[in-house]
Amino acid sequence: MKAVIQRVSAASVSIEGKEKAAINKGYLILLGIGHEDDETDIERLANKIINLRIFSDDQGLMNLNLADVQGNILLISQFTLHAKTKKGNRPSYIHAAKPEVAIPLYEKFEQQLTFLLGKKVETGEFGANMQVSLVNDGPVTIIIDTKDKK
């Protein structure tokens, strides 16, 4: 799994011109699921995200996690995180999981984040053409790949 975590002061997602979800302070997470991903990736990634300390404390140091600031999560599926661009100019998405594999993993990931955070995680719609808006706070953007063991 690949995740782009953006610390935001606000984020929203719209589908066909209608707002589906919105959050204030928290994380906008773009999640790409690969064909080699499984439930072990869910647990590892969800725990890492929930415990990330990327919010500023009173001294201005990134020392607080999502729970410390009572933050929220907006989770968006994004298969294009698995784009391969080595050859040619059109990206290949052969490493992205097919919907029949990706959707159950996406839903379980959402459930795991909800459980760990202790409140509802807002989402887009898997496979939909979405318009995502955000105010990146910092900016702070973290990329995590569960297959990168370094």
Describe the SSE topology.
Layout: E1 2-15, E2 18-23, E3 26-32, H1 39-51, E4 55-56, E5 62-64, E6 72-77, H2 99-117, E7 122-123, E8 130-145
Parallel strand pairs: 3-6, 6-7
Antiparallel strand pairs: 1-2, 1-3, 1-8, 4-5
Explain this structure to me?
Strands 1, 2, 3, 6, 7 and 8 form a 6-stranded mixed β-sheet that branches. Helix content is 21%, strand content 37%. The model has no long low-confidence stretch (mean pLDDT 95). By secondary structure, the chain is an alpha/beta fold. It has 2 helices and 8 strands; from the N terminus they run E-E-E-H-E-E-E-H-E-E. It has one domain: D-tyrosyl-tRNA(Tyr) deacylase (D-tyrosyl-trna(Tyr) Deacylase, Chain: A), CATH 3.50.80. Helix 1 packs parallel to helix 2 (99-117).
